[in-house]
UniProtKB/TrEMBL annotation:
<feature type="domain" description="Ppx/GppA phosphatase N-terminal">
    <location>
        <begin position="29"/>
        <end position="311"/>
    </location>
</feature>
<protein>
    <recommendedName>
        <fullName>Exopolyphosphatase</fullName>
        <ecNumber>3.6.1.11</ecNumber>
    </recommendedName>
</protein>
<comment type="subunit">
    <text>Homodimer.</text>
</comment>
<dbReference type="InterPro" id="IPR022371">
    <property type="entry name" value="Exopolyphosphatase"/>
</dbReference>
<dbReference type="Pfam" id="PF02541">
    <property type="entry name" value="Ppx-GppA"/>
</dbReference>
<dbReference type="InterPro" id="IPR048950">
    <property type="entry name" value="Ppx_GppA_C"/>
</dbReference>
<keyword id="KW-1003">Cell membrane</keyword>
<dbReference type="InterPro" id="IPR043129">
    <property type="entry name" value="ATPase_NBD"/>
</dbReference>
<dbReference type="InterPro" id="IPR003695">
    <property type="entry name" value="Ppx_GppA_N"/>
</dbReference>
<keyword id="KW-0472">Membrane</keyword>
<dbReference type="Pfam" id="PF21447">
    <property type="entry name" value="Ppx-GppA_III"/>
</dbReference>
<dbReference type="GO" id="GO:0004309">
    <property type="term" value="F:exopolyphosphatase activity"/>
</dbReference>
<dbReference type="InterPro" id="IPR050273">
    <property type="entry name" value="GppA/Ppx_hydrolase"/>
</dbReference>
<comment type="similarity">
    <text>Belongs to the GppA/Ppx family.</text>
</comment>
<feature type="domain" description="Ppx/GppA phosphatase C-terminal">
    <location>
        <begin position="317"/>
        <end position="491"/>
    </location>
</feature>
<keyword id="KW-0378">Hydrolase</keyword>
<dbReference type="InterPro" id="IPR030673">
    <property type="entry name" value="PyroPPase_GppA_Ppx"/>
</dbReference>
Length: 504
């Protein structure tokens, strides 16, 4: 597969940066990756409490948005000296859940000149595991727990391979807001919070316990604060056990109110959400039968950086995901390669004229071509709709939410009628570019409807504004009446959608 051009600056300038737009805090790390190891140059952490502004209906309020936008504006200044292609920004639970996330992203683009990727919960979990795997030695199975502001991720893995990943909708901000209203801390409120977390864990507890692990690691500010409180009180030398959590719970209850919390090692910024985070961790220990846990100072942002290094070296987890799906759903690989080859051939001829300047456009088109018949696994009737459903809702490691949706949309509209007005709104991809990718894939698909290897001659594709012109060698199209008929049907469909296609 031919991928898009990578800037040489990516390899020549070793500085990389990752920004984690979390539900509680925004974390920025600037570093160099040298011989596979992370050399941190700069870290910034800002408490934003984005999840505080998320209503039960999923609306992010103006106050929370403004806190986030102000912080992003500050982060942009810090990132000025990092090559733009070496910056990756990921957003987690709150923007996953906010029904008005697109408004936030639109406004963010005005003050923050880097694309923001909203990643699925399972992808967040996978990246968290990569951060731990690169910083903690050992080949035994390990359990990793990361308590965020709105979600908690659970991963069992071995060495660099995650074996089980899951994200549950519970976090230190959301649980404090729900179960400790007005800051009151009681035994009853803890019981309710722990029970709710245990109910949330019911779906994964048996499966995770059956898989087993030899080491347990905790990440995130919540677990760090809990560890510090335990150590400062002299209950432990560093490890966290269930008995320690119970002692800390009783200590918080004795304070009676969040405003009264005063525990060495717990910052004033962490105190307001400590109770909710502690309840989640108590439930995790109980539901998963965790004996002890060690805190690790690596998490999502480190995982993002290591994954960036993999991509720079052309070891893209997304490639492996596509290969895995091809095998799992028994896709006709020969036909997929034919459509893939045609789509790339067309793309490369018109990329400059159509200004495909975003590096991922060709990659995503290529992957959609390889997966466009995945829906045949369900049924041949309307298989393009089945393809889109599978690709939108299956687990696709390495893909952010919009990348996964775009691949699904390309497969959905690669055949039959399409209406541009029906397309979803993207923040990472321009609407005109999405439509153009759809049109390329449609033409590539039509050219290969006969499923015959090597019957297409060399041909040329040109564009004039939104007109696609295909020119075959003299006499070819007159001999291939079936292909001419197929292209005529496609010509009519594109015309109904407001676009022109010509061939000769």
């Amino acid at each position: 597969m031919q991928t898009s051009n990578q800037s040489s600056d990516t390899e020549s300038d070793g500085t990389v940066a990752a920004l984690d737009i979390g539900s509680n805090s925004f974390h920025l790390i600037v570093a160099r990756i040298i011989d596979g190891s992370l050399q941190t140059l700069h870290k910034v952490k800002q408490r934003v409490r984005l999840a505080d502004g998320l209503s039960e209906e999923g609306v992010l309020d103006e106050e929370a948005m403004q806190r986030g936008l102000n912080t992003l504006s500050q982060m942009a200044q810090t990132l000025q000296n990092v090559p733009p292609q070496n910056v990756r920004v990921v957003a987690t639970y709150t923007l996953r859940k906010a029904i008005n996330a697109d408004e936030f992203l639109t406004r963010a683009a005005e003050v923050f000149p880097y694309p923001i990727e909203i990643i699925p919960g399972r992808e967040e979990a996978r990246l968290i595991y990569q951060g731990i795997a690169h910083t903690v030695s050992g080949t035994d199975n390990r359990l990793v727990v990361d308590i965020g502001g709105g979600s908690t991720e659970f991963i069992i893995g071995q060495h660099f391979t995650p074996l089980k990943v899951n994200s549950r909708s519970m976090g230190c901000v959301s649980f404090t807001k729900q179960f400790f209203p007005k800051g009151k801390i009681t035994e009853r409120s803890f019981q309710r919070a722990v029970l709710a977390a245990e109910q949330e864990l019911e779906a994964i507890s048996d499966d995770f316990r059956a898989a087993g692990w030899q080491q347990c690691h905790g990440t995130s500010g919540t677990i760090k604060a809990i560890r510090e409180a335990i150590v400062q009180n002299g209950w432990s030398n560093g490890e966290i056990k269930a008995t320690h959590l119970e002692k800390l719970k009783q200590t918080l209850i004795a304070f009676d109110h969040i405003d009264n919390i005063n525990i060495p090692g717990v910052s004033e910024h962490r105190r307001p959400v400590l109770a909710g985070g502690l309840a989640v961790l108590i439930a995790a220990f109980d539901s998963l039968n965790i004996q002890q846990m060690r805190y690790e100072d690596a998490a999502l942002r480190e995982g993002v950086l290591y994954e960036m290094e993999e991509r720079f070296q052309h070891h893209d987890i997304r490639e492996r995901t596509v290969e895995s799906l091809t095998t799992r759903y028994s896709i006709d690989s020969q036909q997929a390669k034919r459509v893939h080859r045609s789509a790339n051939f067309i793309f490369e001829q018109i990329a400059q004229a159509w200004q495909f300047n975003k590096k991922d456009y060709q990659q995503l088109l290529s992957w959609a071509a390889l997966l466009h018949e995945i829906g045949l696994h369900i049924h041949s009737t309307a298989y393009h709709k089945h393809s889109a459903y599978i690709l939108q809702y299956t687990d696709m490691p390495g893909f952010n939410t919009e990348e996964q949706l775009l691949v699904a949309i390309l497969t959905r509209y690669h055949r039959k009628k399409f209406k541009p007005a029906d397309l979803p709104k993207f923040s990472l991809f321009k609407a005109k570019a999405v439509i153009r990718l759809i049109r390329i894939l449609r033409v590539a698909s039509v050219l290969n409807l006969r499923r015959i290897e090597g019957y297409l001659p060399a041909y040329q594709v040109e564009v004039e504004d939104e007109l696609i012109k295909i020119t075959f060698p003299e006499g070819f199209i007159e001999e291939q009446q079936l292909l001419a008929a197929d292209l005529t049907v496609e010509q009519d469909i594109q015309s109904e959608s407001g676009y022109q296609l010509e061939f000769s």
